[in-house]
């Protein structure tokens, strides 16, 4: 029988996958993009990236 | 000031952010757990009886994201991550991140995503601290030509 514990393991996997996809889609897996976001004074060189 | 549209992707970032929030919401509503990557990973070192399998299930999902992403998303939306640092710098940076998250009892996901949305004052302090430190460090590294 599929009990609540098994179901939780499915959501644990799915949430991990979803979170990873969100990170990739937003660009946060790319260090140069994250640094670009943090670079408030980069205007004129590479612009504000996010 | 001009906008660099190839690197400025607000709609993708917004969509990604919504997905991150959704994942965190599902985790706390269905599983009753706070989604904090460093905490989930740290709990495996060393692994404890009865508190291991869910962490591995989550991390397996997280680590399979790149494979799924490349299978689902059209190639024109995929850019290769760029790391402007030596391997040694990456190792040192990783170590510093680990030490920092341990002292702060959480990382960007736990404090910045889950903590802030739960209106936790501790998470607000943590988020303000690490974001400020990030802004300052990038300024020092990029504009004061220290390295």
Count helical runs of chain B. Answer: 7
Low-confidence stretches of chain B: none
The greatest interface here is: A-B, 39 and 55 residues
Radius of gyration of chain B: 17 Å
Task: Give the helices and strands, then pairings.
The complex is a heterodimer of chains A (50) and B (147).
Chain A: H1 4-26, H2 31-38
Chain B: H1 10-31, H2 37-42, H3 53-63, H4 65-72, H5 87-103, H6 108-117, H7 121-143
Helix pairs in contact in B: 6-7
What would your notes on this structure say?
The complex is a heterodimer of chains A (50) and B (147). Chain A is mainly alpha-helical. Chain A is built from 2 helices and no strands. Chain A has helices at residues 4-26, 31-38. In chain A, 42% of the residues are buried. The mean pLDDT of chain A is 80. Chain B is mainly alpha-helical. Chain B is 66% helix and 0% strand. Chain B is built from 7 helices and no strands. Chain B has helices spanning 10-31, 37-42, 53-63, 65-72, 87-103, 108-117, 121-143. The model of chain B has no long low-confidence stretch (mean pLDDT 88). At the A-B interface, helix 1 and helix 2 of A face helix 1, helix 3, helix 4 and helix 7 of B.
In short:
The complex is a heterodimer of chains A (50) and B (147). Chain A is mainly α. Helices cover 62% and strands 0% of the residues of chain A.
Features:
heterodimer, A: 50 residues, 62% helix, B: 147 residues, mainly alpha, globular
